[in-house]
Write a structure and sequence with these properties.
TIM Barrel
Length: 399
């Protein structure tokens, strides 16, 4: 069947005959998510690659890059191989066509060994401030050594850029709080701004390819814009939750809106959108980080940070397209094309089939992710993926 592509070409794809009667169907290239946490190994109650891959396909993603903060963390050849074997087995068991690459975590002990694994990883994940898991590299000298090594070997560094010293100061200000609204104060914007500025300085000094994960403030993107203008090789990622949620959503979502870095102001949201449109922001990374409803129901201080997002990211962006906020071309750039360039990643030819007119409400019970909920539940969105085509086989988003 001939289907129109986002750039007004036509291609033949093996689709159900019923699609021929639907007028506003469009094909986009399969999405790439450079930032997921599918929780294997160690916390299978939250997610695994059987449920995670189904959630990814349902959301229009055909490639994902998984983060290393597992139990045990993915930090060397042994843990990398063991994790890869687990993932491949799970994908085989459900006959999933999802493609994947893995980040390796930076530690004080593994810097010299990482170059040996260059061909096996998509990049190095650096936690400049503590988040979920045990990985943390806040020692300035170790950070310098890491950026120097990555620059010499042309390996991407992906930074969780929150300054650990600033995070500790925030915790000291609110030592006993159980109010989730304080999360954005404890991990305040200064922690992110300071860490981003420091990472950019290191990238400039050591000629490192720097990928800044989940930027969330107007000041961060201003620093990134200036760095790009100065010729520094720096890239910026933004998440759907920072684009479509703000601090006001704590009122209704409680700890379901708790993530690191935390939600920011509506003014920050506007700045992120502006930088998407002008090209400063390069990618959408879902930071799909599921936790169970039971874990999220714990009081603030005990509830873990992180939200699921891989199933709803494209529909949120297509809804924004339908509202005139963004073009389909720009969506393809930030959800597919730019990741291929930044990470020198060559995916198989895959396609998402999107009904631009389909209106549905996000519902927890429709989610394939094992955690079974979405922070966007209750939102009516216009524009949903119907399925993906991989290896000339059509996989419906929902069955």
């Amino acid at each position: 069947m001939k289907i129109r592509t986002w750039d007004n070409q036509y291609i033949d794809l093996p689709l159900p005959d019923t699609y021929g009667a639907q007028k506003n169907i469009v094909a986009l290239p399969g999405l790439i998510d450079p930032h997921v946490h599918f929780r294997i190994p160690g916390t299978e109650e939250k997610e695994d690659w059987k449920t995670g891959s189904k959630a990814a396909i349902a959301g229009g993603y055909t490639s994902v890059f998984d983060m290393p903060n597992n139990t045990p963390p993915c930090i060397n050849k042994t843990t990398l191989q063991e994790k890869t074997t687990l993932i491949e087995r799970m994908l085989d068991e459900v006959h999933s066509p999802l493609a994947f690459k893995l980040w390796i975590g930076a530690t004080k002990e593994n810097i010299e060994k990482i170059p040996e694994l260059k061909k096996d990883i998509i990049g190095i994940k650096v936690f400049m401030g503590a988040s979920t898991g045990t990985l943390l590299m806040d020692n300035p000298e170790m950070q310098k050594a890491l950026f120097k090594m990555a620059g010499e070997h042309n390996i991407v560094i992906g930074t969780h850029a929150e300054d650990e010293e600033e995070l500790k100061k925030g915790k000291e200000k609110y030592p006993e709080t159980t109010d989730v609204h304080d999360h954005s104060k404890i991990r305040d914007r200064n922690a992110a701004i300071k860490a981003v500025s420091h990472a950019i300085t290191l990238a400039k000094k050591y000629h490192t390819k720097l990928y800044l994960l989940h930027v969330s403030t107007a000041e961060e993107v201003a620093l990134i814009r200036q760095a790009k203008n100065d010729g520094i090789t720096v890239y910026a990622e933004v998440t759907p939750h920072h684009l479509f949620l703000s601090e006001k959503d704590y009122d209704t979502l409680g700890t379901k809106a708790q993530m690191n870095p935390p939600l920011r102001t509506e003014e920050d949201q506007k700045a992120l959108w502006q930088e998407i449109l002008d090209g400063t922001i390069d990618t959408i990374g879902t930071d799909h980080a599921p936790h169970t409803l039971e874990q999220k129901a714990l009081p603030y201080g005990q509830a873990p940070s992180g939200v699921p997002g891989i199933e709803t990211a494209l529909s949120l962006m297509i809804d924004a397209y339908n509202k005139g906020t963004i073009t389909l071309e720009r969506i393809v750039d930030i959800m597919h094309t730019n990741s291929t360039k930044i990470f020198s990643y060559i995916p198989k030819e895959t396609w998402i089939i999107v009904d631009l007119d389909l209106i549905k409400t996000v519902r927890d019970q429709d989610m394939y992710t094992k955690c079974g909920w979405s922070p966007f539940a209750g939102r009516e969105l216009k524009g949903w993926p119907l399925g993906v085509v991989i290896n000339n086989i059509y996989y419906p988003s929902h069955t």
